[in-house]
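User: quick one - fold this with zinc ion bound?
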Amino acid sequence: MGETERNAAKDGGITPAVRICMIFAAVLFVSAVIAVILMHRPAESSRVVIIRENGVIYSLDLANEPDRTFRITAEDGSWNEVTIDNGTICISDADCPDLTCVHTGVLRSESVPIVCLPHKLVIRFDDGDTEAADEG
Ligand SMILES: [Zn+2]
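Assistant: Sure. Structure tokens for the protein plus zinc ion:
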């Protein structure tokens, strides 16, 4: 161990502070690249689940679903209108105040679900561990 430290210290007179900065910059860069890759990872499966308050209410295989629009209504009367079109799924209309779910558009990525926070509604690709939906 001591041997390695001495060799590193001789190495071109780089101070530990500079070396930490370089390592930090490298880690930051690698993290950014990984984040970009994850965000743009295309969906591997066509299986989609619609989840409300941690319970799956619909499980769909978009490859086999006919084009249609249907409404999901909660007990309190709030609703989201889901459109399946040519193997894609989106929330086309809703009565939530922010309409973030509508503006999200078509579900494309496994890492970016369609979320309607006011209605606690999530549409996402089924990654196989739907049972473990107790986080958060
Ligand atoms: Zn919404």
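One thing worth noting: Residues 69 and 83 are 4 Å apart (CA to CA).
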